[in-house]
Design a protein that fits this description.
With 110 residues, this protein is mostly helical. The chain has one domain (2-69, 93-104). The protein contains three helices and three strands, in the order βαααββ. The protein has helices at 26-39, 44-58, 71-77; strands spanning 10-11, 95-97, 102-104. A three-stranded antiparallel sheet has the order 1-3-2. It is globular.
Length: 110
């Protein structure tokens, strides 16, 4: 699995928050999402989307953990298309891959 993670250059847009109660712990939550994807053997694309999703969940509540949903609630949320913040990638060579919902650089060795 990790062999497919080498020589990769991809970008995942942040989910546009409906509200921001607090950003306390959102970075830590994103890292927890990343590590969860890694430990579950997810692709790098799915892992990055999970990381973004968990960080977005965290923004919904004032404290650092109340916004985080259970795993049974979170995993299906990966399939929901949500509005995102514009990536504003300066290099026009980046291309969006709608199949896995990530941006790929020309240097990405998929």
């Amino acid at each position: 699995m990790l062999e497919s993670w080498g020589n990769r250059e991809i970008w995942v847009e942040a989910i546009r928050p409906e509200k921001i109660a607090s950003a306390t712990g959102s970075g830590d939550s994103s890292i927890a999402g990343f590590l969860t994807g890694l430990l579950r053997g997810y692709s790098i694309e799915k892992t990055l989307r999970l990381s973004i999703l968990i960080g977005w969940q965290n923004l919904q509540e004032l404290d650092a953990v109340s916004g985080i949903k259970s795993w049974d609630q979170t995993e299906p949320m990966l399939e929901i298309d949500r509005p995102t913040l514009d990536a504003r990638l300066k290099d026009a060579a980046w291309a969006y891959d709608p199949q896995v919902k990530v941006w790929r650089s020309p240097r990405d060795r998929k």
